[in-house]
Design a protein that fits this description.
The complex is a heterodimer of chains A (about 325) and B (about 60).
Chain A: H1 7-14, H2 17-24, H3 28-57, H4 77-83, H5 86-117, H6 124-136, H7 139-149, H8 156-165, H9 181-206, H10 210-218, H11 223-251, H12 255-260, H13 272-281, H14 286-316
Chain B: H1 2-9, H2 13-32, H3 37-57
Classes of the chains: A mainly alpha (about 325), B mainly alpha (about 60).
Chain lengths: ~325, ~60
């Protein structure tokens, strides 16, 4: 055996003659298709087929718990009922409240943390790890954890609020109060996902070349002016990405809120996805819930298109 | 503004994508606003129109 053989030559020599004869007649394109075919089949089976099936179900009155009754084609009636239902409209407003305030606080705190972490100080890596920890936990764990923190008798959260405001810790319930419950889920989600926004902002801050600040220093621009005319415009595409990422994720939020409040008290924290689960697996209105799922899908898909556009803009910079 | 309208007339990708994005954004706002049920009812049509438009115009030349 020649010692200066290339790896490809060694593989070709090691291939059995019977196999080499069979593959030898195939072109590069055919071999590429053979390699990607399992992935495409899997994708069709677990993504595309369920989507098409859900679209099909959304035009019927099918109920998954009454298989023997079959189903009837009802046209756009499911969509009409959903889009004229004040309860669903209320769920969307609850989702909007959750979406707006979580993104607002996560961007504000995430950017501030990234700006602080971007400075060179002792223990920088340690604090970055500590800040990023909540993001690595399971939403179910975070939900349970915050349920304990919000306990009026033993919860740490009420005691911290009491320490700063002087209010009796047992006098208010974050989860049980109609007024406070929407804020309870906002706080828990902000605690969990601010590190994610911080990491994206940190990537943006670290991508700004130092010579731009040096040029600004030479031009005697103040720190405040440098912040508004250099830092913010150059981090903005990254911030936009973070907003879109969190927007799409929070629009589908389910697990954390179910663990914390289960949509209560009443329906004050019932997000669209929680109502969808109830319609599908508690009331068993499969056709109706399929139509609801398609409405949410179209919304997320539309937002994802904007996200891809923003991503391309960032790439082209 | 004139350049934007010219690019729209010449079927350029950039401005048309912006129009589609605005339509999607408007639809999402209509879906989640607390003011009128009528706007909520029409939101899906607006989002769908924006999304389909986005998919078509993303094939326009730059």
């Amino acid at each position: 055996m020649a010692t200066n053989d290339t790896p490809l030559e060694r593989i070709a020599r090691a291939t059995p003659d019977s196999l080499a004869g069979r593959v030898g007649g195939l072109g590069d394109r055919a071999i590429a298709w053979i390699f990607i075919a399992p992935t495409i089949v899997l994708l069709l089976a677990i993504n595309i087929f369920p989507l098409i099936w859900t679209i099909n179900l959304s035009f019927t009155n099918y109920r998954a718990n009454r298989l023997t009754l079959g189903s009837e084609y009802v046209g756009l009636r499911n969509y009409e009922r959903i889009l004229t239902d004040p309860d669903i409209w209320h769920n969307m407003q609850v989702t909007a409240h959750f979406l707006f305030w979580t993104i607002f606080f996560q961007v504000l705190i995430g950017f501030a943390l990234a700006w602080l972490i971007n400075r060179n100080f002792r223990g920088n890596a340690f604090w970055t790890t500590v800040i990023v920890l909540p993001m690595m936990l399971s939403p179910a764990v975070v939900g349970n954890f915050w349920t304990f923190l919000y306990q009026p008798q033993i919860g740490l959260f009420n005691y911290v609020v009491s320490f700063f405001t002087g209010v009796d810790p047992a006098s208010f319930q974050m989860i049980g109060s109609v007024r406070l419950a929407p804020w309870a889920i906002v706080i828990a989600d902000t605690w969990m996902w601010t590190p994610f926004v911080m990491l994206i902002c940190l990537a943006g801050l670290r991508s700004i070349p130092g010579y731009i600040y040096e040029a600004a220093e030479i031009d005697r621009a103040s720190k405040w002016r440098q912040f508004w005319t250099i830092t913010i415009p150059m981090v903005l595409p990254f911030l936009m990405l973070a907003v879109l990422f969190r927007g799409i994720e929070n629009f589908k939020m389910f697990d954390l809120v179910v663990e914390l409040t289960s949509g209560g008290p009443g329906s004050t924290t019932e997000l669209a996805s929680i109502n969808l689960k109830r319609e599908a697996f508690e009331k068993w209105r499969t056709g109706y819930s399929s139509a609801f799922a398609i409405i949410l899908f179209v919304t997320v898909f539309g937002l994802a298109n904007i996200y891809v556009k923003a991503l391309n803009r960032v790439k082209s910079r | 503004m004139t350049e934007f309208l010219e690019n729209l007339a010449r079927l350029r990708r950039g401005p048309w994508e912006m129009v589609a994005s605005i339509l999607i954004g408007l639809g999402v706002v209509m879906l989640m606003q607390p003011f009128a049920l009528q706007l909520f009812s029409w939101s899906l049509i607006v989002i769908l129109a924006g999304t389909v438009m986005f998919m078509i115009v993303s094939h326009f030349p730059d």
